[in-house]
Amino acid sequence: MLLTPENILLLGSAMLFVSIIASKAGNRTGIPVLLLFLIIGMMAGIDGLGINFSNPASTQFIGNIALVIILFGGGMETQFSDIRKIIGPGVTLATLGVIMTAGITGLFIWLLFRNTDFATCGTIGILDALLLASIMASTDSASVFGILRGRGINIRPKVKSLLEFESGSNDPMAYLLTILLIQIIQSASHLTVMDILLQLFLQLSVGFILGLLLGKITVWIVNFIDLSNSSLYAVLMLSCAFLIFTLTSACMGNGFLAVYIAGMVIGNHKVIHRKSISNFMDGMAWLFQIIMFLTLGLLVNPHEIIDIVWEGLIIGLFLIFISRPVMVFLCLSFSKRFNLKSKLFVSWVGLRGAVPIIFATYPLTAKMPEAALFFNIVFFITLLSLLVQGISIPWMARFLDQEGVREERKSEFGVEFPDDIKGAMAEVEITEDTLRNGSRIMALPLPDNTLVVMIKRKDRFLIPKGHTILKPGDKLLLIADNESALKRSYRQLGLLNERSAMGGYTESKS
Question: The whole model's pTM is what?
């Protein structure tokens, strides 16, 4: 097929369509949807439909755009109240943990290739082994967010917050190690230890400081500016995310860390049109997640993957079952907040995904001798991680007793308070016991400051009146002055578990 602009658009839209349909099947079967995106990309590539895509630089560019959006959106969904108690262990895993994973795995790779003469790989030096390990040292934010949030897995809040914080903040350290090792290997004059430590300190400190500062500036700009079209606020927020990334990188800081920190700052402040901005960023994150995984799938040649299956299998299993658990137990050894089962579960959710594959394109663009080998090994280990770990996370959560309170159900009414209105609302389901005082709304024992504003009966929505007759199975939308009033309403309605009726209540921010 001649790759005209029209044909490229046709193929791209068809792959997007198939990916979205496949995600529905993935949710039903338990297969991680990100793995399906990769497979679809591979099927459309040179060994499938015949699309010949071999441009690591373009892949790297697309991947960086996607990572900025994913990390920024993930930061906006992270609440300071959730990470306050796990900030110490989280930072340790995201920094020291990445270095330890790279060191342990790199040493194993060096010993493996030094003592065993694989036909494909031959022997590689210690620096090359550390580079390959550094590329795979971080967990993937897209994979962790996608599986823990997208599939609605109920993980204990403390453990879930730790995993999401780690995956969102450990990419910068893996990126730094990858770039530094490429520079050291290619540098005629070796960098000193002080040079390396200075670069690490500069990248992390500048990234953190500018993330905080630019995040607060973004909040001020979005709230201060008066745009004629409310839809432009989401576009403004997206442009700010890319500005934060590029400005931080220009100042010798780590842009990935900056956008994640800025996202957290913005997500924990009052922002106008928060709901529409959040929905827009979520949609953009999914779009670029799909594009990123499809592009990575196109870049790989499956027939080359077959040549390194044994090497990839040995390294991947070592990473999953030895280096990741050893690192987690050492980093969390002084933390009393996590018991043995929690540490085992954190060890298991060391998902690799798009980030390691994107980092594997840096040796390719640097034209390093072992770059193609490293890319294929990293790609295979990503597939292995998504298959072994991604599919089994729900089972491991049950086995290790890490399931938390069931997440809130999707709203039946789709109603949310604007940010500037103080109040609380809840959705409850009527039972026989609820109607013990009578079936009319006026018979419900509700406090004076709580109102029934809407009724859903099967697929119909009804406007409530005092004499409206309720039936078991009806859903009511309640609005009250505050959360305390809703709690009283639950108690008076006989709903002892205040969040069990229909997914609980929400209180607006003021």
Answer: 0.76
Task: Work out the widest C-alpha separation in the chain, in whole angstroms.
Answer: 86
Burial 360-371 (b: 16+ CB within 10 A, else e): bbbbbeeebebb
Q: What is the pLDDT of residue 412?
A: 66
Residue 489, SS3?
helix
Nearest C-alpha neighbor of 396 from the set 327, 466, 342, 323: 342
Query: Looking at residue 2, what is its pLDDT?
Result: 58
CA distance 381 to 387: 10
Question: Mutual orientation of helices 309-318 and 96-115 as an angle, nearest 10°?
Answer: 140
Number of H helices, E strands in the chain: 23, 5
What pLDDT, on the 0 to 100 scale, is given for residue 273?
86
For residue 174, give the nearest of 109, 101, 252, 105 by alpha carbon.
101
Would you call 370 helix, strand, or coil by DSSP?
Answer: coil
What confidence tens digit (pLDDT) does each residue in 204-245 have? 899 999 999 999 999 999 999 888 888 899 999 999 999 999
The Cα 136–Cα 106 span in angstroms is 10
Question: Helices 87-94 and 324-331 sit at what angle, rounded to 10 degrees?
Answer: 140
**Coil, strand or helix at 403:** strand
pLDDT class of 498 with cuts at 50, 70, 90? very low
Q: For tokens 């793995």, name the residue.
A: 35
Looking at the chain, the whole-number percentage of residues with pLDDT higher than 90 is: 29
| Gap between the terminal Cα atoms of the chain | 57
Long-range contacts of 118-123 (CB under 8 A, 24+ apart): 118/310, 118/311, 120/307, 120/308, 120/311, 120/373, 121/308, 121/311, 121/373
